[in-house]
């Protein structure tokens, strides 16, 4: 319209416009505003003229500049009279800008603002819904108390508007009016009540929002709308979903009884101790007997679950918190994967999600343990992200994964981000106190860090060591001595003070060194920092009490220095100490207690997570994030002991379909595919499981789906169970019309599931739980509606465990080839196996391994030199599980084992074995331990005796076995309190290796040394499917725990490893020839192992 | 009814109260209030935190002040600072702020201080429509575009001549329908639907070359320009590879759960159809290996660097766009290197060494080596710098995910269809 030049030349403004100078509207609007109008008051005069002119283009231009001023936070209020005149303008853009202005300044110019009201009142009757809605928006945004009655009227009218968009706007207006005049509350609640009944997805979110603001305590308004809200949820816009979910979370906590059964305390502990997700599943079984979930409670859980797949992170988070606060414990795990997914999102999202995971991971380690690696820190993460990840890793640390985590921590300690390095040291300290196995390792590592060049690192280490020594008051005088030696090089006051305190506290353990340190300190006393001085006085006093012969004079000297110190704290302390320890004529009363006062045993500091008590706040809230109760935070109530009347949620009346519903209602009958639009609508409805608008769809879909009772819910359930059954690969193709049939479907499913149980051991536990889960179905068959809800519960269970936790997948992968080998008939079972839950019992806890603690230690020393051939972690590989003890022979106790391919925690020469013990009997087993072994010389690191194993519970324990590089079975006895069972572990030769990394060059060099007797080779035939290099690696790695050596020739594959016990090098090379032949060569001095390995590899590669 | 003048307002619960846009140097260049005005002095608390954090990335996203809470995102060198007064889900605000930034990006092609200042009126109109009383009203891009048309040169000229405006006067059709993401009456002469399957490899490789962590994140970006109201079905050869996914709201979730096909009525234009995660159990094949040796000498304040990159598992495709970024320690003053291929730059202020290699030639592996000059007297750095790897492989989805077919229902014409695959390095870090 005009240009920058135009404004420079005020006089010629109009002329210039007339001339129709070319320029873009936007650039003129803002460019000029920013260029010129920021301060110049005179220009506003010009604006006034423009606004009052009768040229629309000029007015628009002026308004754009005014908005520019508002955006910059400049005051444009003196233009109010000129602007308000334009409120009735026809130009929609101008009108909107005037609205912006009005909303901004009406509060300041109330009288003038009233001039515009009539315009809005008129617009509220406009036939265009858009105009009506914006009029209401502005009218309600003008914060002029005098128009409250007008607003009230407008809101009431709009709440009954034809257009859902206008009704939505009125829901927003409710909140605005309420904040303007809280006295209107009662009237507004009436409107809210009315709008809550609205069936439009557009309105739902907004009205719940105003409910939350105006009357969050009026839970009774929700009862009748509860089911509708649950059912509409999927189709509500994403922001509304968040608000509704959080409201329903609160609602559910007041209306349903706790799904966490009383006995859960034990299970919690159990789980905490073993992180065995299976024990959770077990919990469910016992639970099913005693606790039956309210169908409405289940409805909420079921309908929110799909939202975990939302692209909106706030929605995912709110579903996660809903599950956390409402779902039975074992179902919460389904949110894990989605939360971990959010970590890919923006930094700020990561921050919030990590905070919530940190809180969750304290209570439920098992939930996140399989995803531990997602919390590994990258050097490019922001500091607060790093610290949170560290927090979570520390929370997840347990006996099985500690070595992996410590290895990771070694890298972090070296970080250039010193705040983070310091946090890592504290984390190591926490791991050390929590996991007694590694306390010494950590302590030694920390001691090595004392020689680090960075002061912060050293200081932090000293402080952490001090705490550790306090919690471990055993003989640690070596460490104290070491610290004393380092003392001269440490200059951080906190660290010096900590060392001095340690000296004093344990002065009797280092009787020679402590006085010497004191002597040194006496020399430097005057130049020390205050906290150090205090500790010097402290040390002097303690030494005086324990070793007065040597230190009497020194102490007196120090006390004298302290007496004249500049700091009065130190003078005070000195005076106090002197009175306390030096015997004098008067005031000697305390003297005899001096020793007991100063050398009293002190409670060890507790090292715990900063997120320990965050769970008092609802997850995902601002309060949780800040760890402070935010204004307006509403506590989640505790579960009621007895459920309130359930019937309040029943909706009997079937209202006629409202006028604006045609969008939804129309397309029901026409199914033809070419009519896409209607087709879509129908899809929409079915898929949304929209039995929602309870009335409508039950009538509509009766043609297609079910002959069940018209209760909206039961119908939905049947469609749901139908869904899951197709899902599980049975493709019963929606033939289930009656509930009876669907029940039989359940049975079939059960049957099919039993088969894989035999095939793949992992499935065993799960199928049991499945049977049990089906229990309610049978019991409740009296009414079809109920039974279907029961089956629903069951299918829900399925889909929960469906969310494949990492370990489970692995077992599935493993079991697959076996099944395939059996028969082609069971192909469908395979599918099922993939989708349906497999038990997570024998989940290998950490599939990716770490080197032994020895190397951890080595790493902590921060050496940059690495030996050229290292034993390293193997790449990802599947894990096979073997039976150790069948539950038939074991009188209910069953045991399975697998090789986690992880360096053994206990001794480097041992092979790590993880055993899963499951109690399949109906009574608890006690004192499970390892008894006699055969041969007696067999070196086994036993697991700690398990005091008690509840029925259906299972435990994972790790043990180490030294096989001495032979495949001879390790025989030993597995004992319970009453029985003894002989069992044996027979390792495949491939499990007796540790992978090692080397360059191709080194490989060839080493190979050259292992020729002749040490070389075994054979030409083998490979299955054609295996000829790609990837599948060769896969097969070799699955057969033997070796590492891949990168190869420059595409037809030669090399692998290297070392035997666990003797550390002999094992080199495997595979040269592929034409078609599917290949030359397989094994070089090692252990020739027996070589031939066995050759045989195994040959077999592995021949398999398809 | 009694008319009561109530000047003392109760601190009302509301959602997003105000928004301030702040540039990197700490100037507030735009403010918008959805309720009564909050003085911009509230930002002082934020500036304090910003000062303390040094790096803009390190500013905590949630801050508390005596009367307000500040929730901030940092994006494209701008801070979007929102003020809330009461309890709210912080992710709700964060997600919304990112949506605002996305909208700016979508409208103006970039999201920067100057472009926002240039389009301040449009920005204001957008913000006005996106939030009502602090609660999101319209965030769907095609709904917004019907109400406020994005600025184009042509349209401004037309508007100048005809006096029409950029603001629509009817309610966007999407606002009311069950499929708010698509507007009615779309017409194209060439009907086409293109899908890009893009996979990113996230990995951490430790200094011995072992993969500490590796996983694949995939995303399907779609560009659909189809007339009318098409209903598409996209199926995969191997849907079971996909482990965890999130969908555009248009995807029918039940259908996916039951049949593992993506069935949807697409939005018009470009959009993200789904993101997925490939199970980490499957061996993730890293396409390249990195051999590096970076060392700093105890004496003489210098160091040496030697990096070689070679192909590992590339499935016979060429690795392109190879780039290595090294975050040098602060004490490295300058570098003197020779690259056997490509160019390198070293930024003195950010201490970033970027080596742009380009295509990876398996016959002649690219190598970068030479000396590093350190600040004299500075202690030897504790930690060797981490390397970030960037690469691209065309026509390959490294996880093996493959689209098997795309069907269209509901419309009669035959659309052009196409699927492209691309593998990229995501957060691919090599520790040294």
Automatic annotation (TrEMBL), chain A:
Its main location: membrane. Residues 992-1102 form the Beta-adaptin appendage C-terminal subdomain domain. InterPro entries: AP3_beta, AP3B1/2_C, AP3B_C, AP_beta, ARM-like, ARM-type_fold, B-adaptin_app_sub_C, Clathrin/coatomer_adapt-like_N. The keyword Nucleus does not apply. Keywords: Cytoplasmic vesicle, Golgi apparatus, Membrane, Phosphoprotein, Protein transport, Transport. It comes from the Eukaryota. Residues 747-761, 807-816 have a biased composition (Basic residues). Residues 737-746 have a biased composition (Basic and acidic residues). Residues 690-709, 726-736, 780-792 have a biased composition (Low complexity). Pfam families: Adaptin_N, AP3B1_C, AP3B1_C_2. Residues 669-825 are annotated as: Disordered. Residues 679-689, 710-719 have a biased composition (Acidic residues). Belongs to the adaptor complexes large subunit family. It is found in: Cytoplasmic vesicle, Clathrin-coated vesicle membrane; Golgi apparatus. It comes from Pleuronectes platessa (European plaice). This is AP-3 complex subunit beta. GO terms for cellular component: AP-3 adaptor complex; clathrin adaptor complex; clathrin-coated vesicle membrane; Golgi apparatus. SMART domains: AP3B1_C, B2-adapt-app_C. Subunit of non-clathrin- and clathrin-associated adaptor protein complex 3 (AP-3) that plays a role in protein sorting in the late-Golgi/trans-Golgi network (TGN) and/or endosomes. The AP complexes mediate both the recruitment of clathrin to membranes and the recognition of sorting signals within the cytosolic tails of transmembrane cargo molecules. AP-3 appears to be involved in the sorting of a subset of transmembrane proteins targeted to lysosomes and lysosome-related organelles. Residues 822-968 form the AP-3 complex subunit beta C-terminal domain. It is a peripheral membrane protein.
From TrEMBL, chain B:
The keyword Transport applies. It holds the Pfam family Clat_adaptor_s. Belongs to the adaptor complexes medium subunit family. GO terms for cellular component: clathrin adaptor complex; cytoplasmic vesicle membrane; Golgi apparatus. SUPFAM superfamilies: Second domain of Mu2 adaptin subunit (ap50) of ap2 adaptor, SNARE-like. One of its GO terms (biological process) is intracellular protein transport. Keywords: Cytoplasmic vesicle, Golgi apparatus, Membrane, Protein transport, Transport. It comes from the Eukaryota. CDD domains: AP3_Mu_N. It comes from Pleuronectes platessa (European plaice). It is a peripheral membrane protein. It is found in: Cytoplasmic vesicle membrane; Golgi apparatus. This is MHD domain-containing protein. PANTHER family: AP COMPLEX SUBUNIT MU.
């Amino acid at each position: 319209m005009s240009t920058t030049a135009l404004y420079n030349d005020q006089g010629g403004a109009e002329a210039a416009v007339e001339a129709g100078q070319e320029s873009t509207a936007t650039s003129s609007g803002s460019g000029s505003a920013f260029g010129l109008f920021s301060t110049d008051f005179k220009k506003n005069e010009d604006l006034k003229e423009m606004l009052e002119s009768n040229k629309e283009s000029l007015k628009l231009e002026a308004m754009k500049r005014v908005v520019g001023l508002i955006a910059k936070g400049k005051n444009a209020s003196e233009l109010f009279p000129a602007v308000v005149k334009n409120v009735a303008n026809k130009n929609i853009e101008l009108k909107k800008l005037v609205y912006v202005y009005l909303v901004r300044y009406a509060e300041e110019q109330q009288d003038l603002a009233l001039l515009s009201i009539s315009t809005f009142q008129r617009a509220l009757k406009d036939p265009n819904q858009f105009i009506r809605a914006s009029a209401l928006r502005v009218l309600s945004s003008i914060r002029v108390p005098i128009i409250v009655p007008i607003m009230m009227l407008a809101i009431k009218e709009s709440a009954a508007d034809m257009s859902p968009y206008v009704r939505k706007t009125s829901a927003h207006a409710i909140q605005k009016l309420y904040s303007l005049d809280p006295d209107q509350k009662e009237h507004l609640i009436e409107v809210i009540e009315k709008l809550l009944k609205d069936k439009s997805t557009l309105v739902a979110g907004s009205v719940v929002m105003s409910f939350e603001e105006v009357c969050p305590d009026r839970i009774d308004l929700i009862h009748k709308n509860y089911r509708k809200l649950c059912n509409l949820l999927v189709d509500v816009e994403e922001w509304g979903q968040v608000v509704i979910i959080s409201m329903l979370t609160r609602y559910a906590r007041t209306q349903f009884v706790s799904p966490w059964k009383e006995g859960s305390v034990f299970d919690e502990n159990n789980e905490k101790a073993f992180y065995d997700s299976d024990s959770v599943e077990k919990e469910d079984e016992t639970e099913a007997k005693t606790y039956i979930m309210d169908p409405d409670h289940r409805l909420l859980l079921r309908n929110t679950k799909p939202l975990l797949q939302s692209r909106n992170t706030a929605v995912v988070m709110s579903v996660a918190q809903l599950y956390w606060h409402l779902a039975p414990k074992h179902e919460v795990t389904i949110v894990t994967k989605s939360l971990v997914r959010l970590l890919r999102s923006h930094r700020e999202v990561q921050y919030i999600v990590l905070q919530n995971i940190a809180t969750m991971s304290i209570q439920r380690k098992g939930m996140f343990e399989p995803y531990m690696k997602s919390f590994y820190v990258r050097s490019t993460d922001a500091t607060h992200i790093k610290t949170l990840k560290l927090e979570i890793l520390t929370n997840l640390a347990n006996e099985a994964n500690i070595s992996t985590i410590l290895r990771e921590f070694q890298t972090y300690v070296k970080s250039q981000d010193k705040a983070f390095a310091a946090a890592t040291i504290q984390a190591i300290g926490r791991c050390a106190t929590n996991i007694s196995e590694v306390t010494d390792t950590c302590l030694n590592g920390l001691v090595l860090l004392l020689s680090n060049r960075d002061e912060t690192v050293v200081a932090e280490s000293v402080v952490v060591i001090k705490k550790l020594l306090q919690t471990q008051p055993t003989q640690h005088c070596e460490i104290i001595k070491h610290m004393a030696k380092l003392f001269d090089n440490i200059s951080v006051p906190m660290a010096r003070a900590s060392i001095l305190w340690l000296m004093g506290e344990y002065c009797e353990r280092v009787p020679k060194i402590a006085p010497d340190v004191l002597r040194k300190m006496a020399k430097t006393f005057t130049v020390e920092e205050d906290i150090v001085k205090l500790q010097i006085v402290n040390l002097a006093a303690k030494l005086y009490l324990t070793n007065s012969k040597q230190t009497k004079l020194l102490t007196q000297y120090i006390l004298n220095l302290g007496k004249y110190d500049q700091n009065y704290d130190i003078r005070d302390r000195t005076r106090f100490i002197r009175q306390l320890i030096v015997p004098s004529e008067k005031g000697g009363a305390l003297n005899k207690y001096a020793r007991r006062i100063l050398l009293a045993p002190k409670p060890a500091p507790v090292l715990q997570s900063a997120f320990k008590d965050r769970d008092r706040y609802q997850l995902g809230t601002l309060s949780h994030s800040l760890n402070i109760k935010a204004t307006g935070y509403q506590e989640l109530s505790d579960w009621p002991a007895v459920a309130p009347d359930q019937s309040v949620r029943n909706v009997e009346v079937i209202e006629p379909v409202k006028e604006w519903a045609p969008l939804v209602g129309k397309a029901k009958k026409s199914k033809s595919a070419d009519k896409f639009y209607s087709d879509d609508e129908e899809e929409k409805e079915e898929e949304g499981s929209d039995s929602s608008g309870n009335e409508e769809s039950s009538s509509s879909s009766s043609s297609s789906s079910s002959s069940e009772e018209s209760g909206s819910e039961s119908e939905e359930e049947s469609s749901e169970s139908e869904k899951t059954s197709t899902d599980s690969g049975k493709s019963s193709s929606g033939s289930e019309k009656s509930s009876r049939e669907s029940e039989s479907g359940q049975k079939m499913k059960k049957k099919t599931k039993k088969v894989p149980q035999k095939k793949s051991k992992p499935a065993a536990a799960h199928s049991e739980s499945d049977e049990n889960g089906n229990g309610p179905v049978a019991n409740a068959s009296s009414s079809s509606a109920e039974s279907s809800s029961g089956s629903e519960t069951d299918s829900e269970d399925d889909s929960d465990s469906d969310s494949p936790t990492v370990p489970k997948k692995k077992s599935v992968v493993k079991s697959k080839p076996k099944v395939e080998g059996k028969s082609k008939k069971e192909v469908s079972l395979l599918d099922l196996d993939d989708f349906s839950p497999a038990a997570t019992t024998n989940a290998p806890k950490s599939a990716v391994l770490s080197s032994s603690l020895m190397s951890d230690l080595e790493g902590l020393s921060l050496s940059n030199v690495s030996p050229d051939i290292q034993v390293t972690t193997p790449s990802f590989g599947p894990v096979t599980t073997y039976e150790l003890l069948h539950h038939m022979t074991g009188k209910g106790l069953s045991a399975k084992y697998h090789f986690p391919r992880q360096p053994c925690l206990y001794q480097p020469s041992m092979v790590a074995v993880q055993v899963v013990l499951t109690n399949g009997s109906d009574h608890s087993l006690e004192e499970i331990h390892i008894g006699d072994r055969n041969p007696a010389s067999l070196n086994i690191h036993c697991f700690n005796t398990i005091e008690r194993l509840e029925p259906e519970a299972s435990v994972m324990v790790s043990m180490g076995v030294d096989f001495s590089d032979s495949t001879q079975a390790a025989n030993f006895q597995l004992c319970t309190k009453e029985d003894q069972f002989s069992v044996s572990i027979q390792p495949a030769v491939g499990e007796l290796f540790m992978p090692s990394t080397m360059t191709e060059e080194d490989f060839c060099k080493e190979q050259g040394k292992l020729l002749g007797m040490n070389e075994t080779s054979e030409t083998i035939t490979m299955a054609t499917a295996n000829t790609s290099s990837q599948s060769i690696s896969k097969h070799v790695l699955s057969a033997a725990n070796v590492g891949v050596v990168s190869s420059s020739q595409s037809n030669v594959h090399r692998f290297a490893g070392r035997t666990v016990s003797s550390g002999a090098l094992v080199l495997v090379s595979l040269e592929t020839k034409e078609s599917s032949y290949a030359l397989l060569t094994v070089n090692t001095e252990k020739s027996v192992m070589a031939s066995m390995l050759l045989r195994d590899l040959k077999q592995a590669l021949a398999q398809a | 009814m009694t008319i009561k003048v109530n000047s003392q307002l109760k601190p009302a619960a509301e959602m997003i109260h105000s928004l301030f846009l702040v540039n990197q140097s700490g100037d507030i260049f735009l403010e918008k209030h959805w309720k009564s005005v909050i003085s911009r002095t509230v930002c002082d608390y934020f500036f304090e935190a910003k000062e303390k954090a040094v790096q803009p990335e390190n500013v905590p996203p949630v801050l508390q002040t005596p009367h307000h809470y500040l929730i901030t995102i940092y994006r494209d060198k701008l801070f979007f600072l929102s003020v809330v007064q009461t309890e709210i889900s912080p992710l709700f605000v964060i997600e919304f702020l990112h949506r605002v930034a996305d909208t700016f990006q979508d409208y103006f092609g970039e999201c920067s201080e100057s472009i926002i200042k240039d389009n301040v009126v449009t920005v204001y109109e957008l913000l006005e429509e996106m939030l009502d009383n602090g609660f999101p009203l319209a965030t769907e891009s095609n709904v917004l575009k019907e109400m406020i048309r994005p600025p184009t040169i042509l349209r401004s000229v037309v508007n100048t001549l005809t006096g029409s405006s950029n603001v629509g006067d009817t309610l966007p059709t999407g606002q009311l329908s069950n499929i708010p993401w698509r507007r009615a009456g779309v017409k194209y002469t060439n009907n086409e639907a293109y899908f890009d399957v893009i996979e990113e490899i996230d990995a951490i490789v430790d200094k011995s070359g072992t993969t500490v962590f590796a996983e694949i994140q995939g995303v399907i970006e779609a560009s659909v320009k189809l007339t009318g109201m098409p209903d598409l079905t996209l199926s995969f050869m191997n849907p079971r590879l996909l482990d965890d996914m999130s969908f555009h709201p248009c995807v029918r979730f039940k259908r996916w759960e039951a049949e593992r096909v993506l069935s949807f009525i697409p939005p018009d234009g470009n959009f993200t159809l789904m993101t997925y995660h490939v199970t980490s159990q499957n061996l993730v094949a890293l396409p390249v290996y990195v051999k590096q040796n970076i060392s700093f000498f105890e004496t003489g304040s210098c160091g040496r660097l030697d990096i070689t990159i070679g192909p590992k598992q590339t499935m016979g495709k060429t690795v392109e766009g190879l780039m290595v970024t090294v975050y040098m320690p602060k004490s490295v003053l300058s570098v003197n290197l020779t690259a056997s291929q490509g160019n390198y730059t070293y930024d003195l202020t950010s201490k970033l060494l970027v080596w742009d290699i380009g295509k990876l030639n398996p016959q002649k592996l690219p190598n970068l080596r030479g000396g590093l000059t350190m600040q004299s007297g500075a202690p030897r750095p504790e930690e060797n710098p981490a390397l970030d790897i960037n690469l691209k492989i065309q026509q390959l989805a490294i996880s093996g995910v493959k689209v098997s077919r795309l069907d269209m229902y509901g419309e009669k014409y035959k659309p052009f269809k196409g699927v492209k695959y691309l593998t990229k390095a995501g957060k691919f870090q090599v520790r040294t």
